[in-house]
Write a structure and sequence with these properties.
Elements: H1 2-11, H2 13-30, H3 36-53, H4 57-79, H5 94-118, H6 123-141, H7 146-164, H8 168-198
Length: 199
């Protein structure tokens, strides 16, 4: 039993390291702490290699975009912090919702077409999840509560994809991310309500 566990840990150390970094980074994000960004950056890089090895090319490409969004989010949050060191939550209007959802749909079709041609695993599903993950990342970097709603939907679907691809640790991670996204949604709503009361 112990030998089996050790063998699994050795064989999957990169995926497990990515899982731990992701959980810590997302938890710090739910708390609106600026330190979340370097931790998330580490997770992005680790999962770039995990997904490339699994031939989930859309997810691997997503990690490259995540690195860019992570660097932008780090800068945007740092620039927009209040004097007391707290990150302010920003509302997302109906136009912002519409633009994000349409951009996600267009990205899904275009990326799916590309992934079919290069022989990616689950090309259309993976492309759609990648596209909407980019939308959620953009909303998160812009400090919109809506990012957590979209992450909940995307992460639930990712659990099934990763189970299908036998990435069990990652499927477990994404199940946890659904819970973390719900926690983030709750905490960011409270922060927004507190800001409105203070204003």
């Amino acid at each position: 039993m112990i030998t089996t566990i050790l063998s699994y840990l050795v064989a999957n150390w990169l995926e497990i390291a990515g899982m731990v970094a992701t959980v810590v980074g997302i938890w710090l994000t739910t708390k609106r702490l600026l330190i979340c960004w370097p931790v998330v950056l580490l997770a992005d890089v680790l999962y770039l290699f995990v997904f490339f090895r699994a031939r989930l090319f859309s997810d691997a490409l997503l990690q490259i975009f995540f690195v860019a969004f992570t660097l932008y989010g780090w800068w945007h949050w740092w620039r927009g912090m209040k004097d007391d060191g707290e990150v302010r939550v920003e509302p997302l209007d109906a136009r912002g919702w519409m633009v994000g959802l349409v951009a996600g749909a267009v990205g899904s079709v275009l990326l799916g077409w590309l992934m079919v041609r290069i022989g990616a695993a689950l090309p259309h599903l993976d492309a759609a999840l990648t596209s909407y993950s980019l939308v959620a990342s953009w909303w998160g970097a812009r400090k919109h509560i809506a990012n957590w709603w979209l992450w909940i939907v995307v992460d639930v679907i990712y659990v099934g994809e990763y189970l299908y691809k036998d990435l069990r640790a990652t499927a477990l991670l994404y199940g946890g991310l659904v819970l973390l996204a719900a926690l983030g949604l709750r905490d960011w709503k409270r922060a927004a309500a507190s800001s409105q009361i203070a204003a």
